[in-house]
Amino acid sequence: MCNLYANTTAVEAMRRLFDIRPGLDRLGNAPPRFSIHPNYSAPVVRRTETGDRELIEMNWGFLTPNFSKRDGSPIKPRAWNNARDDKLMHSGLWKSSFLERRCLVPASSYNETKGRKPAVHYWFGLATDDPDARPPFAIAGLWRIERADLCSEDETGLRHTMVTTEANDLVRPIHAKGRMPVILEPQDYETWLTGPTEKARALLKPFSSAKMRVIKHGLDEKRDLPPGLGGELA
């Protein structure tokens, strides 16, 4: 599963890519995000009640109550940051959001881990002729308004998760369980956001290996940084 991704795309570039009208960008001067972990805040594109696209911050991971195995007392909620494509219509955690609240999760790369002691962390992105470029893309996502008692005090209550599917030939050798995020083509953004259920389900498939690349990989100490040194983009 994906537990770490990056979005280093400038806000203005995201406005253009996702066709965000003036006044519907809620990010302000948000900085690049080199390491987005579960529970962290990140940009998301969703439809408003009037049908316009909105660029807004949400925390990553749907929350569910969690209890101590020792005494049954409430502890930190679980954050479900990945939703399997084959469970969207069968799990109460995902179904209503899939039917009513689909979103786009902007990204420039995402991370997967292979092995232990040492673990090797691979960053995946879109193929490009420029080795230093990190072309933006969108991952199929879901969102919901979270229960207030599960959220921290500084949260808005808006939460997103990303949908995963079977891995393609590039990712499969790295991911032990053969999964990857659903990366969408730009022409499919509107279908994912507003299309009928069956058309949205048809988009849940591996992204072409030929359109992706491994940007860089490294050992444990690199996991929380962009690939390479701290100043390099993820």
TrEMBL record:
**UniProt-listed Gene3D superfamilies:** SOS response associated peptidase-like
Q: Which UniProt keywords apply?
A: Covalent protein-DNA linkage, DNA damage, DNA-binding, Hydrolase, Lyase, Plasmid, Protease
Q: What is its EC number?
A: 3.4.-.-
What the entry lists under Pfam families is as follows:
SRAP
Q: Check the record and name the InterPro entries matching this protein.
A: SRAP (IPR003738), SRAP-like (IPR036590)
**PANTHER family for the chain:** ABASIC SITE PROCESSING PROTEIN HMCES, DC12-RELATED
Q: Which family does it belong to?
A: Belongs to the SOS response-associated peptidase family.
Name recorded for this polypeptide: Abasic site processing protein
Q: What is the lineage of its organism?
A: Bacteria, Pseudomonadati, Pseudomonadota, Alphaproteobacteria, Rhodobacterales
